[in-house]
Structure formats: C-alpha cells, structure tokens
Amino acid sequence: MLLPRFEFHEPATMEEACRILGELGEKAKTLAGGTDLFVNMKKKVLAPEHVVSLDRIQSLAEMDSKNGTLRIGACAKAVEIAESDAVKKDFPALQDGASKLGSPLIRNLATVGGNLVSARPAADFPPPLMAYGAKVVLRSSKGERTVGLADFIEAPGQTVMAADEILESILLEKPAPHSGSAYLKLGVREALEISLVNVAVSITTDGPDSPIKAARVVMGSVGPTPLISASAEKTLLGKKPSEALFLAAGEAAAMDSRPIDDFRASADYKRAMVKELTRRALAQAYSEI
Predict the structure, then answer these.
(1) Are 279 and 246 a contacting pair, CB within 8 Å?
(2) Is 28 exposed, middle or buried (0-12, 13-18, 19+ CB in 10 A)?
(3) Listed residues 142, 157, 173: the one ending a domain
(4) Which residues of 166-187 are buried (b: 16+ CB within 10 A; e: fewer)?
(5) Is the per-residue pLDDT at 190 higher than 60?
(6) CATH no. for residue 219?
(7) CA angle at 63 for the pair 141 and 26, rounded to the nearest 5°
(8) Beta-bridge partners for 64
C-alpha cells in the first residue's frame, strides 16, 4: 500500500518544530520512529496533510540523569532504553518493557514517545512507566506543561495532547531504597507479539522482612487504557510480602481488569492471566529487594 500525499517538514530545533505545529494544528502529525504513523497512513486510518519529522532534534533522543531524576527524550529508541545502564540499574521493569517491544528491527526504530502518543491499549511502555509514577513533559510555542502519565492517555488512540503540542520527554524519579519492580507480558507467540495481557508492578519496603509501604500494579490490554489496580495496591499495603499475599493481590487485580472477548482470547482467560502475571511479577519484584 502506498502512503497518501503529504508535505514533509524537518525542523532542527524544538522551537522550530513548535512553531510549525502551532501554524498547522490538526493538519499535521509528528514523525519519530514511524512504526505506528506510517502503518496507519498506509491503512488510510490517518491522512495528515503535513508530517513533521523530529529526527533532527538531538535533545529529543537524549537520556540523562540528574538529582535523582532520569530524563528520557521522547525520541529515544526502544533499543537504547533496553541497553541503558541507568535504566537497567534503577528501572528494570522499563528495561524489560523496552526489550520485549516487537522485533530487533522495530526496537531500532520505535521511540518511547511514539509508543505513548499512539495510546494503544496493548503498548509495552505505558505499564512499566506508570508503575514508576512517570511524568511527561509537553511543549508548544505557548510554553510547556508536565502531566502524570496516568492522566496522559484518555482512550485508545487519544491523549491529552493538544494539536500544537510535542511530547518532549519522560521524567522518572529514582525508586526509594528497598524497592523492586517487574514487567511481564503474555502473547500467543514468543516474539513479535501484541500483548494479550501485560502487567507491571513496583513495591517498596523498609527492608527484606518489612511490610510493603508503597505499591503500584498496572495492567495493559485489559481495558481501553492501561489500568492501575487500586484494589491490588490496597491488598498489598501494610502487609509483609508472601506468596499468599501476592496471590491475593493478583485476584484483586483481576477483579479491577476490564477485558473483552476478541479473536485472540476470551475475557475470562485474560482475567485469569492478570491474576497469574500479577502474582509472578510481584514475586519477581520482591526478589530484587
């Protein structure tokens, strides 16, 4: 299938990119890795009159750590995040999500910002980023604003971004001592698979034998957006980690999930997998503490 006709823009700075989007508004779409945009354009799902490439803006591809905050540029590639020492050390669930996204070819093209902006329910990056309480920085010619990732995705394919805004970066606070995290993904195949269910968790204690004082359980592919399981978190808080506790949290997460029947699996099966993946992810996260 051929791409529809469009005018191509290649700004070299954020200021120039914001100016172009401010002038074009709804007529334009930004291009990062292109693994979602070009597919949707070929399918005639999208037909923007203008495509604004962000590839020449160096700051969007950079990652840096300062004062306990990791900043990831929106155009950082999945493979770069998967191989980052800073990510491996402090954000292992994010490293797992990046390394499980598509094929090696796709990971060399796909960007974290594109994965978030596409707002697909089965996307790999949102659950682990949400498990760490990530925030996103949105920029336009009018200024910038910071939004919690949990509030960023509104519905499948829809975010809070205005037409003239660019997702500039993702901000992650370094987890507290005695924290652990994990990301698990279930698909029909071993590779190149869209998630049937994915789960990311993070837990924090005062030490290996202490009660859980902070917890986050995020589920993907079982609702219109990634879902935070408040019931699972309530189950975990204040209690000492154990297999029985993790199983109970998995059951609570399953109750909070909202899967649907489709050609890939039944809602009942997906709900059962939420329970099991949550249990396994919590056990893996606790093993890191």
Answers:
(1) yes
(2) buried
(3) 173
(4) bbbbbbbebbeeebbbbbbbbb
(5) no
(6) 3.30.390.50
(7) 30
(8) 71
Parallel/antiparallel/unpaired status of strands 28-31 and 50-53: parallel
In a domain, 71, yes or no: yes
> Which structural domain, as residue segments, surrounds residue 90?
58-173
CB atoms within 10 A of CB 118: 20
Nearby residues of 183 by Cβ (< 8 Å), 6 or more positions away: 93, 94, 96, 97, 100, 124, 127, 128, 131, 198, 199, 200, 281
Distance CA 276, CA 219 (A): 12
Residue 112 has pLDDT above 70, yes or no: yes
Tell me the CA distances in angstroms from 172 to 32, 77, 121, 193, 228, one per residue in order.
21, 17, 21, 27, 17
44 and 74 both lie in a single domain: no
User: Considering the domain boundaries, does residue 220 fall inside one?
Assistant: yes
pLDDT at position 122: 93
Task: Kindly report the pTM of this predicted structure.
Answer: 0.94
Query: Residues 166-183: pLDDT tens digits?
Result: 999 999 999 999 999 999
- Sign, Cα dihedral of 64, 150, 200, 269: negative
Number of domains in the chain: 3
Q: Is 208 left (phi over 0), alpha (psi -120 to 50) or beta?
A: alpha
Angle, alpha carbons 195-117-185 (nearest 5°): 15
**8 Å CB contact between 17 and 54:** yes
